[in-house]
Amino acid sequence: MAIQPPPSDEAVKAARERHQQNLRADKILSESREKRERQLAEKNRLKREKREQAKISKEKEVEQPEQQGPYYGIPGHGILVLPKGPAITPR
To answer: What is the pLDDT of residues 29-63, one digit of tens each?
Structure first.
C-alpha cells in the first residue's frame, strides 16, 4: 500500500488563504442578506401602517353621516348648487 506524502507548505498556505476568502465572502453575503431583510421588514411595516390608517379613515367616514341640507350637487366632490329661492313678484 502506497502512502501519499503530506501536502507542501505552499499548498497548505494556499488552502488557508482560500478558506479565509470564503469566510470573508460568507460574512459579506450574510450582512447583505440581513440588510435586505431589514429593508423588506420596514417596507412591510409601512404598508401595514398605511393600510391601518386607511381602514381607520374609512371607518370614520362611515361613522359620520353626510350633512343633509338645502344643497344639491355631487356628494363628496364639494360641488354645491344652492336651491332656487322663493320668487319675488312685483305688484
So the answer is: 999 999 999 999 999 999 999 999 988 888 776 66
- Alpha-carbon distance of 81 to 72, in angstroms, equals 5
Strands (E), 40-89: 72-74, 79-81
**Rounded to the nearest 5 degrees, what angle is found at the Cα of 55, between the Cα atoms of 50 and 59?**
150
Q: Which of 63, 67, 84, 64 is nearest to 75 (CA)?
A: 67
Please give the backbone phi and psi of residue 67, each rounded to the nearest 5 degrees, phi first: -70, 130
Is residue 70 within 8 A of residue 60, CB to CB? The reply is: no
User: Residue 81: which residues within 8 A CB-CB, separation 6 or more?
Assistant: 71, 72, 73
Find all residues with CB under 8 Å of 7, minimum gap 6, and list them. 15
Give this prediction's pTM: 0.50
- CA-to-CA distance for 40 and 33, rounded, in angstroms? 10
